[in-house]
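Hey, resending since the last one bounced:
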Amino acid sequence: MTDIIDIRRLFFSKIRSIQALPVTKGGINMNGLFLQGGGAKGAFEAGAVYAMHEKKLKFDIIAGTSIGAVNGYFIYTNNIEKMKEIYTETDFQNEIRDIEITDTIPNDFMIKKLKELKGKNNHIKSFYINYVNVKDGKLKEVRIDVSKLTKVEALACIKYSSLLPYVRPDGIKSMPFAKVAESFNSKDISDKFHKKVKEGKYDNFNIDGGILNNNFMEPFIQNHVKKLYLLVLHNNFEIPQYLLDNYERNNIILIQRKGLFKPNDSLNFDKKFLCELFKEGYDAAIDKCISN
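The structure tokens again:
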């Protein structure tokens, strides 16, 4: 398993000390943003974020998982223009062409871009991400505010949060990225993955937070905000009851795609597809910003 750094050795104690999500009382005039996981579908989120950036909308609390954690880092470092450039101009197909997939779907091609980012958005008070630790055949969700970490530590956590597991067919040592992308189905992979976890095949791995909790909105219970924006990538998404119990419905702004995603869209890094999704996200967010 490839890691940016040995997170257990270097800053386990730091993570343990800040895993408990702090309580921010009131939330007067604060905005919150949730970014759901979904691989390449994150281009939709990026377009929405860019639209809100144009509308001068600022966020105090951010929570993201998987590609949502990646996109959140662009906001956290104040690199919205760079985010747009990456999603609309990068030839990802060329970058991933030679990638061979074994137990996880490598995300170094995206993490490398995050490592190049500089800056800090001082308006953001907390940036929460989650990932899953596997130990003794069991999955444990780790939640952490990466704004309390160094850049190296934060990127290690984001790498884990966006590292999808993949179960190869029996007898196959590795699979080309392109072939995996053609038939990728997250539900099918999830079922096979949980079986392998019970067998101990993924012990000591740190992987995608969406495996356990792709609706990582709990930080907005401990950190109440005035307006909560939800960027979601799941078909037929429903707002969790615990949010509705704590927020007025008109203070929750849901931004989602009008059309349905296909199962393999999570790994569809075709440039045309990403540009189309970016535009859809932009338009969807503009409509919401105007109406709210």
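Residues 7-291 form a domain with the Cytosolic phospholipase A2 catalytic domain fold (CATH 3.40.1090).

Sorry for the duplicate.
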